[in-house]
């Protein structure tokens, strides 16, 4: 289920970023195709909103209330934060403020529950990975994003010894994504502020 929704929304998020970049360029040129571009962008946003609201309803009404283990609670609360974050990428005004707050609250609740899991647990690492992306991309707080990611990485690497091979592989994969994001974000922090491009978006699960 998670993979199905992620695949569905990822293609549209990528399309939205592309059409938004095209719109900015064409507006600067004074293109005659602006209305056509805006119409297509609105179509993508409507599809994104419908998909996100669909899974959020399922999460809030069924999956989260019926979760019995820490792994399930962390996973579904993280997922709730992710889909509110996706809405925050394109909504505006009060709607954007609302979904951003919902995302933050969901990530915080997930993090509280994650304290019951080992620092190397893949679901806990995945939560921190996506929460740090939220700080970087939505809240424009690269310093907090880096601090969050680095702390999780350092805690996990200290506890890697003794893990079974499969668990080690899963944890190491997410830790590598944390490290890749840290490298990218630290570089941006040291550079002059520049306009974001699709290639500068952080890795997430």
Question: Which keywords apply here?
Answer:
globular; 77% helix; 205 residues; 7 helices; mainly alpha
Described by strand count, sense and barrel closure, the largest sheet is: none
Query: What is the number of helical segments per DSSP (H or I, 4+ residues)?
Result: 7
Helix content: over 70%
Which regions are unreliable across 5 or more consecutive residues at pLDDT < 50? 192-199
Approximate shape: globular
Tell me the fraction of residues in β-strands, as a range.
under 5%
Number of strands: 0
Instruction: Give the helix/strand class.
Output: mainly alpha
Mean pLDDT: 91
Q: Give the C-alpha Rg.
A: 18 Å
What order do the SSEs take from the amino end to the carboxyl end, as H and E? HHHHHHH
What is the terminal separation in angstroms?
14 Å
Question: What would your notes on this structure say?
Answer:
This protein has 205 residues and is mainly alpha-helical. The protein has seven helices and no strands. The protein has helices at 2-29, 34-63, 70-88, 93-114, 122-138, 142-157, 165-190. Helix 3 (70-88) runs antiparallel to helix 4 (93-114), helix 4 (93-114) runs antiparallel to helix 5 (122-138) and helix 5 runs parallel beside helix 7 (165-190). Residues 192-199 have low confidence and may be disordered.
